[in-house]
């Protein structure tokens, strides 16, 4: 195995949770999750020569991951299996089990899957605590507009949960 | 705690993802991508080749004789040179735009660069249709002027009382052929755009809407 390949593989392995999180937002069953994870990994590898190492691997990787999920990935299954979402997405520790909270979270994830691709990207970046400049740069929109759109998405999410 | 705070708290402690091993990652990067960029590239190359091959296939001996008979040799020679020059220019722009697609650019730029690639191919197809139509018209006019059999038929028609009907039927037939060709192209592009680019267009529009 080449040195570059080995370095790439170990970086992906180390930061794979980031990729899984993108897959969690954009897919709703295990097969699609695996599929998207694979496509993101391929796109990361193809773009790896452009990664200079002066930025953090995660900063670089999450842009590639989001672009793959929003633009490049071709969804194979069209149906959303909500039962699978409920079972897979949220497994809470017994020690922390809180029935009401778990129900709320299920609803939240279900609501996220009803959003459009761009809205999902905004939710993802909100959850990842990205600042508005980074959000705007990633999507290619103005910072003020990113802020406005983010507030709208949050409101939409709340409305989806409490119709 | 509101729903969003709860979600964020849960998001940050997520640890129940499958653990992908180094071997699995190695296998993944040696698999073929199934991204829309790859499909757009394949379809675009096929489109360019299809029209290029069509112009070669259609220039057989029989057609060459017909061109001579209709006094179209010079016209066709010039048209062929221009056609191949235009093809080279289109291929250059297609390749340049394709190379500009970068997964590390912003989402909007990425979408825009993919759409630009499609646009070049679209222009190329339109160019071929228009040039094809122009050639058909030139051939049709010269056929009327130089084809002996047609000249005789036209004389007969002129001497009969069915001249108007002859022209109406001729125009309707040509119109139907053009309509059928356009319908075929339309279906072809609906399929390509429907399958590959519908989602991309929606997302691109969504990003543009945010900026309004």
Taken together, the total number of domains of chain B comes to: 1
Overall average residue pLDDT of chain B: 85
Which structural class should the secondary elements of chain B be placed in? mainly alpha
**CATH C-level name of the largest domain in chain A:** Mainly Alpha
DSSP summary: helix tally of chain A: 9
* Low-pLDDT sequence parts of chain A: 78-94
| Number of separate helices of chain B | 8
Structurally, the number of domains of chain A stands at 2
CATH level 4 superfamily of the largest domain in chain A: RNA polymerase sigma factor, region 2, helix turn helix motif
Instruction: Give the structural class of chain A.
Output: mainly alpha
Q: Approximately what portion of the residues of chain A adopt beta-strand conformation?
A: under 5%
Structure description:
Helix content of chain A is 72%, strand content 0%. Chain A is mainly alpha-helical. Chain A folds into two domains: 1-87, Rna Polymerase Sigma Factor, Chain: A; 90-163, Orthogonal Bundle (Arc Repressor Mutant, subunit A), CATH 1.10.10. The radius of gyration of chain A is 17 Å and the shape is globular. Residues 78-94 of chain A have low confidence and may be disordered. By secondary structure, chain B is mostly helical. Chain B has one domain (3-210). Helices cover 83% and strands 0% of the residues of chain B. Chain B contains eight helices and no strands. Chain B has helices at 3-12, 22-29, 36-57, 61-69, 73-99, 107-146, 148-159, 163-210. The radius of gyration of chain B is 27 Å and the shape is elongated. Chain B starts with a helix and ends with a helix. The chains are: A mainly alpha (163), B mainly alpha (212). At the A-B interface, helix 1, helix 2, helix 3, helix 4 and helix 6 of A face helix 1, helix 2, helix 3, helix 6 and helix 8 of B.
